[in-house]
Amino acid sequence: MSGHSKWATTKHRKGAKDSARAKVFAKLIRQVEVAAREGGGDVDTNASLRTMYQKAREASVPLDTIERAIKRGTGELEGVRYESISYEGYGPDGVAVIVETLTDNRNRTSAEIKHVFSRNGGTIAEPGAVSWQFDRKGIIEVKGPIDEDQLLEWVMEAGGENFEANGQNFTVTTEPHELGSVRDALEKSGATVLSAELTLVPQNSIPVDSESEAKKILRLMDAIDDHDDVQNVFSNFDISDEIIAAYEG
Fold first, then answer.
1. Furthest CA-CA distance within the chain
2. What is the pLDDT, as a whole number, of residue 244?
3. Most CB within 10 Å of its CB: which of 64, 104, 197, 229?
4. DSSP conformation letters of 81-142
């Protein structure tokens, strides 16, 4: 499984265990606000906003909180203007890392992200140094169990690319611009969609067999993800479920 999938699974389990709910809410609200600012406040015509809206609702962000974020984005309410900045770098064992942030202070965020990398065994790289190793895709998580032949038929009819088993569930891959339409089509067909988001998928993964190196990588990912301005963090590591379980323990 890719670094994205492994880290996403780890984050979901971690989020269920700790009390970081307020921080998760704040990040999702910021994403909703920016999506509304860039494409308007109508979820029917703004695909990015629709995705962020659904993601926030899936995380149990209150509806009135989401609506206020949309109004701040469209200018109906006063709000802070956020800038989207991505950082590229390397973690322990040479794994590639991409960090996506939304910030109201570019200089502060840049300095802090660089510090997080250096403090946790990583290094910041020049723009473009590692991004060529990733493809942007839509990822839809479908609840299982479900007949794989039936799911394949639904995915192909909906315009998705492929799917793979992810534990008891299934991960469907789409082109970025097809994410919303494929999600809607799968739901109409009868599939239960757990989540849908745009992500970066590594073209190739780096196996990390050393438990000590794997834990260093996961500590770096945790530290980056914990930063208030960080919205997403992607990597191309491949760490076994057993090592991840040991890290969580």
1. 52
2. 86
3. 229
4. PPEEEEEEEE-GGG-EEEEEEEES-HHHHHHHHHHHHHHTT-EEE-TTTTGGGEEEEEEEEE
CATH of the domain at 24: 1.10.10.200
- Asked if the structure places residue 27 within a domain, the reply is yes
Domain that holds residue 51: 3-74
86, 99, 234, 243 from 131: Cα distances, Å: 10, 10, 10, 26
Give yes or no for a contact between 137 and 173, defined as CB atoms under 8 angstroms apart.
Answer: yes
Quick check: is 239 in a domain? no
Is 92 among the domain residues? Answer: no
| 8 Å CB contact between 221 and 151 | no
The answer to whether residue 39 is domain-embedded is yes
pLDDT, tens only, 20-79: 678 889 999 999 999 999 999 999 888 889 888 988 998 899 999 999 999 999 999 998
Q: What is the pLDDT of residue 8?
A: 56
φ, ψ for residue 160 (rounded to 5)? -75, 165
H or E segment and range at residue 189: helix 179-189
Give the tens place of pLDDT for each residue, 98-139: 999 999 999 999 999 999 999 999 999 999 999 999 999 999
Count of domains for the chain:
1
Predicted TM-score (pTM) of this structure: 0.83
Token pair belonging to 154 = 């639904």
